[in-house]
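Hi Y.,

Following your request, here is the sequence exactly as I used it, all 300 residues.
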Amino acid sequence: MCYKQSYTYKAVAGCKIQADVYRIPDNVIRPAILWLHGGALILGDREALPRDQLEKYVEAGYTVIAADYRLAPETKLKAIIEDLQDAYIWTRARGPELLHIDPNRIAVIGHSAGGYLTLMTGFCVSPRPKALVSFYGYGDITGPWYSRPDPFYRQQPAIPEDEAYRTVGGSVIAGTPAEGGLSEGRHRFYVYCRQHGLWPQEVTGHDPEREPRWFDPYCPIRNATAKYPPTLLIHGDQDTDVPFEQSTLMSEELARHGVAHQMIPMANHGHGFDTEGKGMNDPTISKLFDQILAFLERHV
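Below is the corresponding structure, written out as tokens. Let me know if you'd prefer a different format.
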């Protein structure tokens, strides 16, 4: 049986930022997984954690902390990373008392933008996590794929500027539940950004063309060292949202520094492949999670 409890780990600008904790209701000290949702840092929330994946982690003996963070463009990247750091600090500080976790055995797992945030924890928190698992994440936020109009998104109907900005720019928010159309509207803002190559500017408030060095502390690929945690990179080779190359380049950089890592290329799979179709009933996905749990067992 999996027990769920919600906590507010931080409040800022009138916004409560929450985390859902899933654990077996006993007093056994367990390792923890800090789980981070995707959504281009613009939409999504902690409830996006697929139930079958959650069950795999909990059954393997982990307590899972699924954390929200403030979203862009209302909140810029510097503050989003501060939320990430605070979620990690809260997990380590309050986890032993509240959650019966071992603060020295924490892995971070994230998908897409959550994969990017996962890779950020490889150098922006201390002590560093024991292991990282990035699903179709990215180590560079200034490359042409994000800072230039994207060919894939340009094939879609053009989003008018006024429509794109209609659902953003209001109050600071953390998490966008699927109900009420908020996620749909913010997704159209994201598509607009990709169609015009505006994602870096809208999310950070800075222009990678004019201020390339500003982005250095926010690109994991520029911050890999021999101290980087063991990392598992998972990416579909048909990804039309985050290029497959983002994980291969990160893998090469980790190898250059002698970091323990593994890359699992998912042949003929696109973005979000693990959340579509049959889930764990798909032998390919089930095998993948066996590999993930084996990686965590080795390092956490």
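The CA atoms of residues 283 and 289 lie 10 Å apart.

Thanks again,
Q.
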